Amino acid sequence: MHVEVSCGQAVMKPPLLFLCHRIPYPPNKGDKIRSWNLLRYLCDHYRVYLATFIDDAHDWQHVTTVEEICADCCFVGLTPHLARLNSLFAFVTGHALSLPYYRSRQLRRWVRQTVAEQRIPRVIVYSSAMAQYALDDTIDFERRVIDFVDIDSDKWRQYAANKRWPMSWLYRREADYLFHYEKHVAEAFDACLFVSSAEAELFRQLAPSLAPNVGHYNNGVDTDYFQPHPNLPNPYPQGVQSLVFTGAMDYWPNVDAVKWFAENVFPLVRKECPEARFYIVGSKPADAVRALANEVITVTGRVDDVRPYLQHAAAAVAPMRIARGIQNKVLEGMAMQKPVIVSPQGLEGIDASSGTEVLLAESAAEFAALVLQVCAGAWSSMGKAARERVQADFVWEQNLPLVHGLLQTDSITLQERH
Length: 418
Description:
41% of the residues lie in helices and 17% in strands. By secondary structure, the chain is of the alpha/beta class. 44% of the residues are buried.
């Protein structure tokens, strides 16, 4: 029952519309970890009406889990290759490709009907492409809050810089058109949130007139789950020095990171440490990732539990060259008290001290040197400080109340909070 108890009496929770570009469960990748914890928290305070897409056939089995905590849900299947075809309409309409990708008459009808029937005055949007349903001219919300998470337009700009024509042109177009839409959304919403202070500050610099209503809340890490546990089974052969990268391996920044590490860093490591092995752990490895597999590089595909791979690794590596927002892989490695060797892009939004809580490297030579130091036994005491940093800054219970406050019609502004 969606009720609260006040002075011994049951009080109906207020209704809230939650728009999310992907079903928030299971929390097995960065965006779903954040959306799932946000949804669970909001369900404690509101009768949540969720409208979302399902772009992975395996996720239909999790519908019941989400329905159990929400007042009502609308799940719309999204077939990626058909959605990409729909995106082509953006060339005719002059919009970002991301908008028709997530356009659905079924979802729009459900939103309009549900908002009218339940008299829903508040909406929270997760990801910019879903804002199109909150900006419907037929609906008049009293309060609109958006969690952009990342500046998606900047991610496309980074893609463009690393691709050849014509993809560089296509990605640059998407960056320009999507940023125009992000600014439009930010102007229309009461509060705009990002995944880190760095991400929020970048948006303020790109759109200074919108700065007063721009803020952030950090991700959280389940440090009870991600904690050192020597009894976890060892997935590695005896006598090897294992380096591990974790993440969804169909995500291009992750693909780019492991390819760069395997081709530019790992050969330098192997020259000095022949027992070194590189493990790429994550679901749906792209063909370019599978092609890296050999006698010293293992591509696992999806695993039920990444913790054994972190627990028994010499180090976790996060050589991100393209990144926006918070890298959960870095936080999880730190929570497991592992030395994490990370690029500046991978450390964005994490206020960790290099040499004390993480190891920061940029060039291939710097990465290789730090890997060899770790394999030789250096930095063995770093894990405790790393875990303490995560426990101090990345706790859901501390970070999510900001969202609840901003959804109230009498809430103070983000500018006042600053």
